Amino acid sequence: MNTLHELFKKGEATLCSFSRPDLEARLLLLKAVSLPSEVIYADPGRLVPPKRAEAYDRLLARRLAGEPLAYLTGEKEFWSLFFRTGPGVLIPRPETELIVETVLRLSTRGKERIIDLGTGSGNIAVSLAIELPKAQILASDISLRALRKARVNALRHQASNISLVHSRGFASLKKDAWRDRFDFVVSNPPYISLAEWEALPAEIKLHEPRRALVGGKIGLEFIHKMIPAARPFLKQGGHLVIEIGFGQKDKVLSFFDESWKNVGVENDLAGIPRVVAARRG
Asked: Could you tell me the pTM of the whole model?
């Protein structure tokens, strides 16, 4: 039998072409052996049963074949929380945390209503639910698979102030009861162009949901429709907060007419314009 340390070094060597082979080898080993992370450091000489070692080998092989790490481990960290994810559900990205930061900056911390459009794994909605416990959050997605993961994550983090809705955009929300009711509409919408999609790594193209990433031929079609569609759902003074892609700032800002006020852009840690926020006038 191999020890934990021997398997870890084997995985590190196997994944040497990745940017963080040490991290990936450790996470996959923890998944295979079902032990707490501290055990690898505290007891590296522990022997691993052959079946667990074989499970580790299978995970390494799947990772080498391009399957995303988050799908293999079954979770991804976002806003210092761990979210269940899996095939067909967009993997949360660290730059999307800027949406949460922007909403918290604009929030009154009171009994606000928030729509998270295209919630995916629920990472934005759950993070806001925890930070804003008085808020009521409506999280929608066209994907039933994504909504199942969002439900699991809401329960996992005890975010009881979230309601989930199956909807294509605002289609299922076009009722008078929803109009002029929300303080925030937030979204990490699809904004990648078809050309950008074709140039993405196979790891993304073969595994992550295309409709959660591709916004149309030029990439901005979804956002162009979403901006005017969101306005009727916001209270006067309510905010729309959306993520955008590299080089899209000027074009997205041109989509806002005079009915929107305080239209601004937040840069991510790399200095890239990443989040646009606007207030309904």
From this structure: 0.94
